[in-house]
Amino acid sequence: MKKIDIALLGFGNVGRALAQLLLAKREVLREHYQIEWSIVGIATRRHGSVLNPTGVDLEAALSFAVADKEISSLAPNNADMDGVTFVRTSGADVLFENTSVNYQTGQPAIDHIEAALEMGMHAITANKGPVVHAFGRLAELAQAKGVRFLYESTVMDGAPIFSLWQEVLPVAKLHSFRGVLNSTTNLILTLMEAGKSFDQALAHAQATGITETDPSGDIMGWDAAVKVAALVTVLMGIPLTPDNIERKGIDDITLEAVSKARDAGLRWKLICQAWRDGEGVEACVRPEQIDPNDSLYNVMGTSSAVTFVSDVLGDLTITETNPGPQTTAYGLLADFIRVVR
Amino acid sequence: MKKIDIALLGFGNVGRALAQLLLAKREVLREHYQIEWSIVGIATRRHGSVLNPTGVDLEAALSFAVADKEISSLAPNNADMDGVTFVRTSGADVLFENTSVNYQTGQPAIDHIEAALEMGMHAITANKGPVVHAFGRLAELAQAKGVRFLYESTVMDGAPIFSLWQEVLPVAKLHSFRGVLNSTTNLILTLMEAGKSFDQALAHAQATGITETDPSGDIMGWDAAVKVAALVTVLMGIPLTPDNIERKGIDDITLEAVSKARDAGLRWKLICQAWRDGEGVEACVRPEQIDPNDSLYNVMGTSSAVTFVSDVLGDLTITETNPGPQTTAYGLLADFIRVVR
After folding, report:
1. Helix, strand, or coil (residue A299)
2. Which of A127, A340, A3, A1 minimizes the C-alpha distance to B171?
3. Do B313 and A320 touch (CB under 8 A)?
């Protein structure tokens, strides 16, 4: 039996869904993977932090968070501390970094992950920032320390994208990809096609919890561009930051434009693309009208999809239908099993 | 550097495409995977066999096969021999079993693979027969001998299906799947939608080489049923043979029925399905009319797709567009790298 101490940094929708999945799969992990986990620390944005080397009661922490109560009361002597201090003090074997993304700098998540790797912890994240702003550095640091830095859930939630290319598609060379990678904009466009105004559609997306309080990162195409940058950086081996991607959001797609497209049998989608160009790469994110024969035409609501073109497999498309925090949590759990095995 | 001796049993479209891919990726295998391969035997159906422990010239064998010449002349003392004797005499580390499928019994491929595993060789196949008719036995034998039995290319060519579930989706429980898994029938239905008669469409499919000389295995749904049986057996852990699957082919789909569906905005597809039912499983293969919102609607020509429903990922769809012998060959190569690593 492998006894693994876990620190959870970030305890929002994704962090809590991960906690629930860890609890739900506790027996399977024990029996089929010989993994016995224990939570030694939880740091939240609004409900304090808790550290306890002998184990934090995860079910209690979940109910405290849901009830909007401070989780620090779960253990004695929990002074407020910053993320890096939390990581360094935790004594964990594995850090889950699930704080909010910063598209421009990737901070403070990069510092958190760096601190974990420096301490010889595996680091797993659903946060795209560190992948696009510090991938090379963090991957090298992980290798030097003999641990792993994994990030499956940063693109298309828990659908296997990075692990697919890194583990089951050897010797393949990725030439290009094209997809719908942002849930909020795709849901808004789907609702507008059904006659809702942009504002009504956005309000609905926010009410379902898939959109941040400030939705501009989604609407303006930043989230999509960061995902494109992450895929290019990791899968094509070409470091690319979102500001180097031609980017146009859906903010000027009107209800009239959506109706007009629909009447012509077309659909607006925020299309993400990248393709090799000599030794470099070209990439863009922009709204396009696509026809029913397009493989992305049926990607509706919060679903996402990506078609990969490689030298050995022709076109391979991965589609994830109606994901949620639980699917993101699954990607984190899959990474966890990978690092422990 | 790992020096690996390979025996190729079956040298038709798939066997030859594998040979070409092995040659094309020779340098990459050497440099990135420290694998140095050598072909120690090739057995063909119509052009004889060759065995040479010091290495068979693969390029020469390919040109002999293409020129319809006996490959036995490539080495001295090559008596005609049956498949099992070929395997036992080869001295290979890895057997690629790519003989023609026998839907009803899985033979003689099962005997070939069994002989290889008994000798301590890894066995890799694109032949569905052994997977549906002897999976449990062959998997156990491989484990007992400390070698591997892999079969990625048996369903959806080289697209990662088995390896996806076995390597990158831990703790997931597959509830059901639904897909278009037979290229010949899908191409025929696509061509009929464009106005060709069944016979014209079939002739075209045969001319492109994707269909066997006797196309009845495809048309009557046997190939699809065998693929469903393979997925259920391996991914759901429930042994299932094709004769236990409710099966209806596309032989009575008329051009009139196809036109009528098209005029109604629908499309005929040969739909493959399986779902858990208590401790057991239900499965069927049958033509259905599907609408444009169906995720399988855009699977045209020789493309195939499957949607998996699991406890942790919602719906995950894998689509492979326009595969060919090279993609099947890639699945075999990916298995090869897995067994050698």
Report:
1. coil
2. A340
3. yes
Enclosing H/E stretch for B109: helix B109-118
B149-171 per-position pLDDT tens digit: 999 999 999 999 999 999 999 99
Tens of pLDDT, residues B38-75 = 999 999 998 899 999 999 999 999 999 999 999 988 88
Q: Which residues pair with B332 in a beta bridge?
A: none
pTM score of the predicted model: 0.96
A298 near B CB under 8 A: yes
pLDDT bin (cut points 50, 70, 90) of residue A77 is low
State the sign of the Cα–Cα–Cα–Cα dihedral A86, A88, A89, A93.
positive
Sign of the dihedral through C-alpha B249, B255, B260, B264:
positive
Contact between residue B83 and residue B99 where contact means Cβ atoms under 8 Å apart: yes
Q: Are A110 and A83 in contact (CB under 8 A)?
A: no
Residue the block writes with tokens 């709204």: A287
Q: Which chain B residues are Cβ-neighbours of A305 within 8 angstroms?
A: 317
Residue B326 CA to residue B236 CA, distance in Å, equals 28
Are the CB atoms for A169 and B160 separated by under 8 Å? yes
Cis peptide before A170 (omega within 30 of 0): no
Residue A298 CA to chain centroid, in angstroms? 22
Record the tokens describing residue A111, joined without a space. 């510092």
Q: Which residue of chain B has the CA closest to A17?
A: B312
